[in-house]
Amino acid sequence: MSYDCAIIGGGPAGLNAALVLGRARRKVIVLDNSQSRNAVTHASHGFITRDGVTPAEFRRIAYEEVLRYPSVAHQSIQVTDVRRAGNEFSITTEDGASVTARKLLIATGLREIFPDIPGLSEHYGRSLFNCPYCDGWELRDQPLIVVSGQPGVFHMAKILYNWSKDLIVATGGEDVLTIEQRELLASRNIRIIETPVTAFIGSAGKLQHVEFADGTQLKRSGGFIAPQLQPKADFQAQLGYEVTETGGIATSEMGKSSVPGIYAAGDASYVMPSQLIYAAAQGSKAAMSINMELTEEEFAGR
Ligand SMILES: Cc1cc2nc3c(=O)[nH]c(=O)nc-3n(C[C@H](O)[C@H](O)[C@H](O)COP(=O)(O)OP(=O)(O)OC[C@H]3O[C@@H](n4cnc5c(N)ncnc54)[C@H](O)[C@@H]3O)c2cc1C
User: Fold this and answer.
1) In whole angstroms, what is the distance from residue 273 CA to residue 155 CA?
2) Which atom of ligand 1 lies at the shortest distance from residue 276's CA?
3) Count of domains for the chain
4) What domain of life does the native source organism fall in (predicted)?
């Protein structure tokens, strides 16, 4: 099958692009293996009209809307290979089948990598999160911990102070806070602990204690932890697009990559902040850019 555009990834970025392209009467296929980044959470926040829905419900509504447009197709499948084939792209899926498309939108999101701390996965998405704007409200005024050995830890603690004044910062002993930053945190009674966290202890996803390498346990009912982020799918070797310092696909404001015909949107282009509404907006912008490029080519007789 041949399409105007193949969209790899059906999160908010890919699906909003499909919506715009479907409404523009473009023949589009969304290839998605349904492993969105926020699947571990019980609720998505901060997207107007959808505040508090489960990630699964968000997707259900999105697919329902997108698939109303007859030129949009969807396959629940993993893309395993993408190549340029003349003026088009050839996209191969895990079942060995392939489709071709004139344009390609990569909206495959990010993978999170965490240190191997017992109890982390049981609490992540329930009482441990990564983004205060997404889940800070639910943890407001509770005793919280920020676990991060990354330079952004000071920023995270400062921001989180809006939601709770009872904060502990655990750096794992990494040298990520300046003397001035330590003093500023101390001036707000925010304790800094250098001893590494060794366990998150709680029940049914609700954090109760954090344990440290020296055996100490502190009562905390929630927290924020900074993951390492990595592209979920990497087609750079085959397609040769430029990536940014952080590993995302480098794009213009309208989602164009450095390779003609290839676009990226959402977490795949690693534009922060990583939020559903930003990803959807980037998908929309990329879709308009793709439609414009297709239109220009058609008017030029190519
Ligand atoms: C715990 C947690 C809570 C969050 N809470 C919120 C919140 O409350 N509000 C908010 O705005 N944001 C929240 N986020 C951030 C939000 O999840 C992301 O910003 C958003 O999902 C990015 O959308 P995306 O479309 O770029 O990527 P994703 O939603 O990750 O979608 C990418 C899709 O591409 C698919 N894919 C990847 N590789 C392939 C491949 N090779 N073949 C086929 N398909 C592929 C994936 O399976 C996935 O379905 C949260 C994130 C986490 C981790």
Assistant:
1) 13
2) 11
3) 2
4) Bacteria
